[in-house]
Design goal:
heterodimer; A: 137 residues; mainly alpha; 6 helices; 65% helix; B: 157 residues
Chain lengths: 137, 157
């Protein structure tokens, strides 16, 4: 049952990035290009997602726990550190170079091109590399 | 302003939010792609991998469903690279650029514990200070990067 729930969550996410056009790097780069022909689409995507999930989380957290699991697994840390900010800046640079963040990049496999394959392989390598950086908690 | 694209963005965004709520309500997990898939690829956690794999399959099948429907629900700005030409957009550069960008995205989301979905969609909805700082950091870094590439250097993407 957990695998089916995971599939449905992934499917909803994949439909969402496809319908919103986030599977098109030019839309993402158009949003980040505030000095050019600005494309507001991503703002509506993030806004729609956050507001929907904000309401959804409020309703969900009325329960004692998830339907198919022991407890809600939420990050408990509150502190800000160099890893959080430095990592996010590195991610932002890669995002700005390619127009891909992990979700849309993986969701775009149905239209695989050589550059996308390179992106996915390098992204996976980056995830391995991140584990080798000291200071993980 | 392209209202049609904005409305599609809003509709797609709501589906992404629904996905995040669904994953929390059913499995109690944050819908962060870098956490779910990065964890699957790097550690393959015992007893905690099957749902990550099916999530990935679902993620890939979402756009495929749109293609089967003819692609009319897609929202690419130019011409797409999928069979319908409307769902999946062209990469913004070649293999060399993507190798650099991919490494930065993987390393950055791994070190920074999250990406647009984990920090953005889920963290902001939880009003997490760490996620707000992370989201602001990658947005500003992305905006500066695009400015440098498009307006200072003038070439590339």
């Amino acid at each position: 049952m957990k695998t089916l729930m995971g599939y449905i969550a992934g499917l909803l996410f994949g439909l969402g990035v496809g319908i919103s056009g986030m599977t098109d790097p030019s839309r993402v780069l158009g949003f980040l290009d505030i000095a050019g022909a600005w494309d507001p689409t991503l703002m509506f995507v993030l806004g729609g997602a956050v507001v929907t999930n904000f309401i959804g989380y409020r309703l969900t957290f009325r329960r004692a726990g998830p339907i198919y699991g022991k407890a809600f697994q939420l990050p408990g840390r509150q502190d800000l550190d160099g890893r959080l900010i430095g990592g996010s800046v590195l991610f932002g640079i890669g995002w700005g170079l390619s127009g891909y963040c992990p979700g849309p990049a993986l969701a775009s496999v149905g239209g695989l091109t050589a550059p996308l394959a390179a992106m996915l392989i390098a992204m996976s390598a980056g995830w391995f590399l991140a584990r080798a950086i000291p200071g993980r908690r | 302003m392209d209202w049609n694209s904005s409305l599609q963005g809003l509709a797609g965004g709501m589906l992404i939010g629904l996905s995040a709520t669904w994953l929390m309500a059913t499995l109690g997990r944050i819908a962060g792609i870098s956490g779910i898939i990065g964890g699957l690829i790097t550690t393959r956690p015992k007893g905690d991998s099957a749902w990550r794999l099916t999530f990935l399959l679902g993620l890939i099948s979402g756009p495929l469903v749109l293609m089967l429907l003819g692609g009319g629900q897609g929202n690419v700005a130019g011409s797409g690279v999928d069979v319908t030409g409307q769902v999946i957009g062209e990469p913004a550069g070649g293999v060399a650029l993507m190798l650099v960008a991919g490494l930065l995205v993987g390393l950055g989301t791994g070190v920074g514990s999250g990406c647009t979905s984990g920090h953005g969609v889920c963290g902001l909805a939880r009003l997490s200070t760490r996620s707000m700082v992370a989201t602001l950091s990658f947005l500003v870094a992305g905006i500066i990067t695009v400015y440098v590439v498009r307006h200072l250097i003038g070439g590339g993407a």
